[in-house]
Here is the input.
Amino acid sequence: MRIGFRLLYNELAWTYDLVSWVVSLGAWREWQLASLSFVKGTTVLEIAHGPGHMLLAMKRAGFEVTGLDLSAYMSQQARHHLQKANLSLPLLRGAAQALPLADNTFDTVLTTFPTDFVLESATLTAVFRVLKPNGRFVVMPSGYLTGNNFIHRSIEWLYAITGQRQTAVTHWEPISQRFTAAGFSVSIHNITLENSIALVIVAQK
Here is the structure.
């Protein structure tokens, strides 16, 4: 599983959009965009930006956006999508656990579909540091399908039996204690969409 993730975010980064579409039946972009309403202020950092779709969405919405990703392959994908849209913004390579950015810089830090790095104390400490006072860390970890057709039910059943579906608020409440330990106050939101529900965690500095 970890090898698959490593390849998806690196050598096979060009397949990321297709894989995301298949495993969510196309709902993954809706899940990402559900987090946009929680982005506040003017300056935004997206960590682990991947192919750059949220960078584009936030730039078009008028935010001053900076992107950071550890993967050179994902940085290349994001740069390509920005160039196609005739947009530009700062793209940095680096780890979320050691953000190469000044203290009190951003109103919002965003990450969507992050891996386990997001819960590491080093990540939470780094994010807290670069946020302005009263800034917020918005995390969109996952979503799940609620449609009643056979395909929707089958995909959710597969996620359930493999232990990969962890979207319930009750699952994330104990994990939210890690954010609290880093100095954040936390709220957890289930966003109801047409055939799915997206989970959004908001950690306020």
